[in-house]
Every structure is written in structure tokens, then in C-alpha cells.
Amino acid sequence: MQWQFWIIQTLNSVAFGGLLFLLSSGFSLIFGLMRIPNLAHGAFFMLGAYFGYSLLARGGNFWLVALVAGLGVGLLGIALERFVLRQISGNEQGQVLVTLGVSFIIADICLLAWTGDPMPLPAPQALRRPLIIAGYAFPTYRLVVLVIALVAAVGLYFLMERTRIGAMIRAGVDDMEMARGVGIPVSRLFTLVFLLGSTLAGIGGVLGGPILNAYPGLDADMLPLALIVVILGGAGSLLGAFVGSFAVGFLYNFGIALAPDLAYFVLFLPMVLVLVFLPQGLFGRVQL
Amino acid sequence: MTRWNAIWLAIVAALLIAVPTVIGNEFYVNMASQVLIYALFALSINMMLGYGGMVSLGHAGYLGLAGYACILLTINGFDQLSAAILALAFSTVMAGFFGMLSLRAPGLGFIMITLALGQIVWGIAYRANDLTGGDNGLRLPARPMPFGIDLNSAPRFYYFALAVVAVALFFIWRFSRSPFGASLMGARDQPRRMSMLGHNVWLIRWLTFVLAGFWGSVASLLFVYYNLFLSPHALGLQQSAEILLMAILGGASSLAGPIVGAAIITLVKNVISSYVERWNTLLGAIFVIVIIFMPYGLVPGCRELWRRIAQRRKPSASKAASEPAA
Amino acid sequence: MTAPALEIAGLNKRFGGLPATKNVSLTVMPGERRLIIGPNGAGKTTLFNLVTGDLSADSGSVKLFGQELMGMRTPERVHRGLARTYQILTLFPREKLVHNVVLALLGLDKLRWNPWAVLTGHRHLYDQAREALAQVGLAASAERVVAETSYGERRRLELAMALAQKPKVLLLDEPLAGLSQGERQTVRELLGKVPRDVTIVMIEHDMDTALGFAERITLLHYGEVIVEGTRAEVVADRRTREVYLGD
Predict the structure, then answer these.
(1) Residue of B nearest to A235 (CA)
(2) Judgement on whether residues C193 and C229 belong to the same structural domain of the protein
(3) Testing the interface with B: which of A31, A47, A105 to mutate, by most B Cβ within 10 A?
(4) Same domain, yes or no, for C245 and C220?
(5) How does pLDDT run across C30-45, given as a tens digit for each residue?
């Protein structure tokens, strides 16, 4: 029983870490490039989960649904960037507060559309049976979520390090004025990064659905975790988001499993340590 | 203070004192008490926002720190006065700690860290069942009886809250005109220059954070005395956002702004909530609209309007006044 | 022998891979008027920023009257007698001129921590501030808001704020930049009247004023001290002409 407990909790942790990576990598990229902490990111994640729920209820294929719901959220992200945030470009603090306002609106509309009851998303049929290896049961779906997150991480790494677009994004994160000066189409880049970040959050929501359910308050549960990931890992850094996500995944999950009363306190401590000793985070590229 | 200011102050004070007698209805007197409590929350967050340019999204955390501390101490046998003092002390010390963490990063980082800290307080209140009763919340057995005065009736509690808020307002008013306040505003506008003039900008901001935390904690005690109950719902991100919005909506650069903002938001919330359930959408929409179209808030906006009207009425006089003496 | 007013030794600072100052050493004696010249990008303003603590040096030492400043934060250095003006005006544009100077005075006054007193009630601060403004010829503009003043007036306000602090060592970063002929003359006379117990280090491109003012000159080029000496020595030096005339 003991071993089974640790196996399950470890897998829960890494799966949760994977979801957090999908959420926070986009958040971190947007913040690193545009200096906008998108506080609607948690709401995007929740909206992805609800979109997924409705599409699955109409009999959609799980993976297709994840993609479609993700893109749906991504389009919303573009709308937020183009039609709202651009109105007040230059006013950084205003932009943060506007994203917060938008997150309240999204959360309330979700409540209206999907009621206050938790909505379970069914995992794909084939992945519901646990994998039995050497007499121990491994929850298959969580393993798959982990794999997807790893694939996404590798994909993002290649996008950032090996492509032209990635080079432009990195240039923008390091020095926006310079990037503008050498003729990088900054405006289109902003929209693209917002699309990418929001889509990842939306996909994360769908993938997280079978584990977390879609429920009101999912946004407020996820957003602070994403913030802590970025504070720990450092802003604008993919590696930081990766390490931070799994660190928070483990801390939060084991915290809840072993000492549910102190789960948030367990998150608080590493955040304090990092802020005191490494204010730029473990791998930060830009000042928080 | 000019003669006109003194007259205005006397009129406002008389009106505020007359509120319970004029309104009569207990429901509305209670709403007036709520406005006062939120006005203090908004005034306290505005010490950071308006004078210091620091946007905090974790101010409701003090409701958790001071509120739960006060209730827990009272339940565990402390008398009301000691409980209140200890709760304030605890919460203010925590403000000092949170301030040190939040001020590790300027600007946007500050917003993110305060938000995370506020949510951690919320999360602990929500999860620590044995201590806080979790989702069910905690009940304060009774309101305090300062100097043996029973505060259970709506008008009496209103006067109690009015007295506390008046004292706080006086302190914050002095703060805003003090040398320290001037240094804080200087640090808001030109932090580098301020260091070069010999000001310790970090310490100025940290002390302001602690002072704001103290008055936020005082408001939290009023909140708990008023509701006689505290649950995690009261200290979530939404509460922090509402408090911040009050200060922005009314106008962060003025002393009256946060009070006006608190009155508007509290009244709108109470009125809307009794008709429809869509308060959050409205809250979000007000946020977006205010920030895009009214970034300086209502009070400075109206003042500007008033100035223009006055200027149009007597163009010659005001022109002479704004012209420098050559 | 008295300690130098400002003693910089082996100061290094790199931005990324680029060295901004390379092993800079210079010594300024009390009461001296020192001019720092050099082409754009020579590291002059960076040097000031390292002395004030706006930037932290990679290595080296900066001593003020024999006391090490490295490791001190900017305000502590100011409290030991350092003041500076900025090449890019760094003022409080929404405030009155007199308030700008009051903030400078507050920086050295314990009163700045008082959250209870009424600032405008402290007449002596305002009197001192007006005095400093009068010193630079801005007495009549004390009650005007910075945003409504001319560029020349703002330059002089920069100076008034630094002078009001009665510094021992004053760093002036292009105090004449952007001024008209007449205004230059005013500031020139003003600087001439600064008492000798104030040591002045000045960055300036206007050679007429600068050469007339300075006793010793340091030439910086690509972050390095190339030439140092008296006015005549530096002007006569071959390397000075190389830097300025390109061979």
C-alpha cells in the first residue's frame, strides 16, 4: 500500500506539474515579452476546461476537442490583446488591472453558462484503465498528460531556440527597444505570443479537466499557482517555467496529500526563500 | 485650512452624524456602516496606491490575518481589547514581512507578489480546517463593548465605525501632508532622484506598506465586529480587487476619492445583488471601463470639470492667477 | 597631508561584454575644479553613476575624503556629502520649484521620516529652499510648477537642488547642455561663485566654459583615462588632439 501511495502521488504531482507548465509557460512568455502579467490566464485555463466539457458532451474526440477548445481560448486571447490591451498600451499597471477585470467577467459568464456545479470531463476511453506494471497500478491518463507536457516543452524549446520567430521573441524579451530598432514586427509578435500563451492555457484546461474537473473557482485556484511558478522559476524563461511548474506541482500535491491544512503554507516557504535570495527567480531573464 | 474647507468639513461631519436619525431604517444604517468600513480599506490601500504608486492585489489578506487572529484570540479566552491589540500587532508584523517580500520587485512584480501572498493567506484560511474552520468560517461570539457601551444596535455600531474611521482619516490626512508623505510621493515620481537626494526609497516604501497594513487591519477588525463572522470567501482575490477598484474609481490622488469610491461600489453592489446575480460581471466591466476611460478616477475628474467651468465663468481672474509673477 | 576629496582607484564596469569603464583611477583634491571630457560613449556619465551608486561597480574603489563608498547605498553616500546633477533632467514636473528644492533639503533632514507634521508648516525649509533658488536666479519662479518652466530654468533648478544640500563634493553632468548663450553666462557666473569648500567635478562639452572653469582636466576615451593634467598640459597633449580631431 505504501508504495502504491507514493507512486500515485508522484504521478499526480508530475501530471499536475505538466498542467501548470502549459499554464505558466504562456504566462511567462507574455510577461517576458510584453511586460503584461495576464491575470486572466487562470480564467483562460478554466474556460478551456468548460469548452472541453461542452464539446465532449457533444461526442467530440478528446484530442480534437483539446485542440479546438485551446484555439477558441487562443482567439479570445487575441481579442483581449488587440481590442482591449492595445487601448492602453504604455500603461502597464492599467493593463494588469484590465486583465483582472476581464478574468472576473469570464468567471461570471462561466458561472452563468455552466452553473455552479463541478463538471467532470471524461478522460479518453482507452486511457481510463490503469497501467499495471509489476503488480503496481499506474494511472494511465496522468502519464499521458505528463508526456504531452514534455512534448509541449520540447516543442516550445525548439520554437524558441531554433526558429526565426523564437529568435525574434528572445530578442524582444531581452531588449524590446533593440528589437524594434532592428525591424522585428513587434506588433504581430505580440499577437502571436498572446495566441500561443492563451491556446496553451486553454489546452491545459481541457487536459486538466479529467483530473481537476471544471468548476467555478478553478481560475482563482490556478492563477496564484502560475504566479508562484513564475516567481520561483523567473520571468520570461522557459526553463524557469518548466522547473517551477514541477516544483510547485510536487509541493502542492504532496502538501495536500500529506498535510492538507498546510498545503498553501508549503508553497509559501520556497517562494519566500527565492524572493529573499534570488529576486530574479531561479532562471529569470527579466526583472519581475 | 481655508475657511471654506472648514465649513465643508463641518457640513459633512454634521451629515455623517445625522445619518442614522435621518435614515432611520436599520437596513440602510447598516449599509452606511459597511460604506465606512470599506472606506477605511480603500483609504489604507490608497496610502500605497495614490501616494506611493504601489498597486497591491493582496490587501484582503489583512482581513485574514487580523480577522482570524482577533476571532481565535477571543474564542480562546482573551478579552476583546487584548484580542484586538494582539491581532493588530500580529497583522502589522506580518505586513512588515510581506512588505519585505513584495518590495523585492518593483512595479509589476509587486502586483504579482502581493496577489500571490494574498491568495496564500486565503488558501491557508481555506485549508487549515482545524484552525479556521475552513469553508465554514468562524464566528465571533459578540461585538466588543468599548467603555461599557453596547454596540449591538445598528446606529450604535455606525457611530463606533464612524469614530474609528474619523480617527484613521485624520491620521491619513496628516500623513498625506507630512514630510514623510512628500518623500513618498517623490519616490513615486522619481525614485532615482530621491535616492540621489539622500532619501532611502526602499525604506520609505516599506514603512508605507506597513502603515497601510496597519490601517487595513483596523478596517478588518471593524469588518469582523460588524459581521461577527469570517470565512475565506471574504478574503479572496475578489475582495482585494474590489478594495483596489474603490480607490481607483474614486481617484487615487485625492483623499476623498477612496471614500467616494467605497460608497459607490458598496451601494452598487448591495443594490445590484438584490436584483441580479451578475455582480462579478459588473465589477469586471467597471474595472475595464474605469481604467480605459477614467484612469484618474471620479473625484479628480469632477474637480477638473469644476475648474474648467469656474474658469469659463471668470476668465480674467483665473488667467491672472495662473500667470507667473514676472 | 589631507585626504583627497574624491579618490577613484581601478574602477571597472562592464555592460554585458562591453567595458564601460576600464581601470579608471583619478584623484581630486579638496576645493579643486575638475573637468572630465571625452567623446560620446567615453563612459563619463557611467563614471558618475558608479561614484553615486546608481550603478554598482564590478571592481575598484571610490573614496570620499578617505572613506570607502563601495558597498554603500546611494542615500548613504549623499549623507556623506555627495551631490550631483543629471544630464537628462530628473525633476518632479508636477510640483512647484520650491517643493523640488524642499525635497532635496528633506533628504538630509531627520524630519523626512515624520508622518505627522505638516510639511508646509516648516517655514525654515522653505526659506532655505527659496534662498537656494535665489542663488541660481529663480527667486521669482519659486511658486511655479516645473512643467510650466523653460528648459533653462529647469537646468538651473537641477543646480539649485544640488547646491541646497551644501555638498562637499558636487558632480555636475553637463550643466550647460541645451542652454542659450545668455543662460550659459548666468550659469558660468553662478558656478564661479560656489565657495571653495565645495569640490566640483564636471562633465561638459562646451569647451569655452569648461576650460575657463577647470584647473585640472581628465580625458576619458572608451572607458579609460587617456590624459590627465593641468589645462595647458591636456590641451597641448598629442593624444587629446588624436581623440578629438581623429589624428
Answers:
(1) B109
(2) yes
(3) A105
(4) yes
(5) 999 999 988 888 889 9
Contact B119 A223 (CB under 8 A): yes
Closest chain B C-alpha to C50 CA, distance in angstroms: 12
Which residues, in sequence order, are CB contacts of B239 under 8 Å at separation 6+?
B60, B63
Per the CB < 8 Å rule, is B284 touching A103? yes
| pLDDT above 90 (res C73) | yes
A49-53, B4-8, C150-154: lowest mean pLDDT where? B4-8
Inter-chain contact C140–B324, Cβ cutoff 8 Å? yes
What is the domain partition of chain A in residue ranges?
2-277
Pairing of strands C18-28, C169-173: unpaired
Reported pTM: 0.92
Residues forming beta bridges with residue A136, ordered by sequence position: A133
Asked if B284 and A94 come within 8 Å (Cβ–Cβ), the reply is: no
Angstrom CA distances, B136 to A14, A258, B230, stand at: 31, 22, 9
DSSP state of C148: G
Calpha distance C153→C180 (Å, rounded)? 11
d(CA A242, CA A18): 8
Over the stretch C155-197, which tens digit does the pLDDT of each residue have?
Answer: 999 999 999 999 999 999 999 888 888 888 888 888 888 999 9
Instruction: Give pLDDT tens digits for A243-267.
Output: 999 999 999 999 888 888 888 888 8
* Cβ within 8 Å of residue A199, ≥6 positions away: A26, A70, A71, A73, A74, A77
- For residue C145, the 8-state DSSP code is B
DSSP H or E run through B138: strand B138-139
C83: chain B residues, CB-CB within 8 Å: 196
C-alpha closest to that of C94 among A244, B31, B186, A116: B186
- End position of a domain, from candidates C116, C132, C164: C164
**Residue A268 clears pLDDT 90, i.e. is over it:** no
ipTM for the predicted complex: 0.93
Chain B: closest CA distance from residue C241 (Å): 35
- A276 at interface of B, judged by CB pairs closer than 8 A: yes
Alpha-carbon span B125 to B142, nearest angstrom:
21
Cβ contact (<8 Å) for B197 and C107?
A: yes
What is the sign of the dihedral through the CA atoms of B188, B192, B197 and B199? positive
Would the CB atoms of B199 and C112 count as touching at under 8 Å?
A: yes
Topology given in CATH for the domain delimited by B21-316: ABC transporter involved in vitamin B12 uptake, BtuC (1.10.3470)
Question: What is the model's pLDDT at position B320?
Answer: 41
CB < 8 Å to B283, chain A: 101, 104
Task: From chain C, pick out residues whose CB is under 8 angstroms from the CB of B168.
Answer: none
Q: Identify whether the C-beta of residue B237 lies closer than 8 Å to the C-beta of residue B244.
A: no
Q: Which residues of A touch B130 (CB under 8 A)?
A: 261
The answer to whether B292 contacts A84, with C-beta atoms less than 8 Å apart, is yes
Probe site for chain B from C96, C116, C143, C150 (most B CB atoms < 10 A): C116
Residue that finishes a domain, picked among C164, C188, C217: C164
**Contacts C52 to B, Cβ<8 Å:** 196
Sheet holding C59-64, edge to edge: C18-28, C6-15, C59-64, C67-68
Query: Could you tell me the residue ranges of all domains in chain B?
Result: 21-316
To the nearest whole Å, the CA of A134 is away from the closest chain B CA by 36
Give the length of chain B.
326
* Calpha distance B257→C141 (Å, rounded): 31
Fold of A2-277: ABC transporter involved in vitamin B12 uptake, BtuC (1.10.3470)
C107 and C141, same domain (yes or no): yes
Give the domain range for residue C183.
1-81+167-247
Contacts of B285 in chain A (CB under 8 A): 101, 105
Q: Are residues C114 and C179 in the same domain?
A: no
State the chains in contact with B (3 or more Cβ–Cβ pairs under 8 Å).
Answer: A, C
Number of Cβ within a 10 Å radius of residue C66:
10
